[in-house]
Amino acid sequence: MLLELQRLSVPPGQRVLLRDVSWQEFETILQELGEHRAARLAYDMGTLEIMTPLPEQAAQSPTDDTPQSQNTKK
């Protein structure tokens, strides 16, 4: 079965696992996606993980406005 990468949709913050992927197939996928891809790929022993990061604003943690405790030791 041939998978067309253009048909694969991974929502932001999610991941897809593909099993039984050869190293040659992984290299082909990397070439097809190019260097300036939004998705991150990881390959381990025939399993390909495709991850898409959250948008930059959603990925940032809110600032902590809690005041720091004062050191009372003298």
Automatic annotation (TrEMBL):
Residues 53-74 are annotated as: Disordered. Residues 58-74 have a biased composition (Polar residues). This is Uncharacterized protein. The lineage of its organism: Bacteria, Bacillati, Cyanobacteriota, Cyanophyceae, Coleofasciculales.
